[in-house]
Design a protein that fits this description.
The structure is a single chain. This protein is mainly alpha-helical. It has twelve helices and no strands. Mean pLDDT is 94; it is low at 213-217. It binds a DNA duplex through residues 32-34, 36-44, 46, 75-83, 86, 121-127, 130, 142, 144-147, 185, 188-189, 192-193, 197-198.
Amino acid sequence: MNVSKTVYEALWQKWGPQYWWPATSQLEMMIGAILTQNTSWSQVEKAIQRLKDEKVLDIQSLASIPSSQLESWIKSAGYYRQKSFYIKGMCWTLIEKFKGSTKELFLLETHELRNELLSWKGVGPETADSILLYAAQRPVFVVDAYTRRFMSRHRWSPENESYEKLSERFTAELEKDHALYNEYHALIVRLGKTYCRSKPHCESCPLKFLLIHPVSV
DNA sequence: CACCAGGCAAGTA
DNA sequence: TACTTGCATGGT
């Protein structure tokens, strides 16, 4: 059977559409992707809202405001000095290489775009792929901590499988559809917020039917 | 009190 | 290549 598809259908059946990414512009999505690194989304929402309230959620403003000010506004998301540095770097790169426009950046072909994103400080594989999928709408599967955890707990993958291999486990069995990958990743996060955490709730997990025996913690 | 949250970079061996 | 460490706030 097609495990990827079966899992997706079970998650969809349980929770339906998740309406990701929760952002109203490509830039907002990209800023959110930096801010959410190893940080809970609720803290990111506060930081994003603050940037909106201060009316600086645009490339020119973020590039030009003092670092100390940006740091104070995104403090709730943690690692605020690094993240401030990364965000300003991102905005300066957009200005200097892409006419200050995310649209211009997204003219790049997917593979080149990924390499460009990975060359930015503060953008690793997951952040790059999130931006590719949710801002540039490319059919790229995002692997994050939730994905790793539920795959290894259900014995769908070995413990220390590479990012690339994990991603392939999905894409190999699914049609190359960005809307599908969008919903799938969001549903995995929805799953991860309740199940497969430090305290297992395997009895009510929508994936408990999976032959693959969940490993108790 | 300890542990965790939608990672990444830089350093070491 | 494969590990280790620093980064930091706020919720549970």
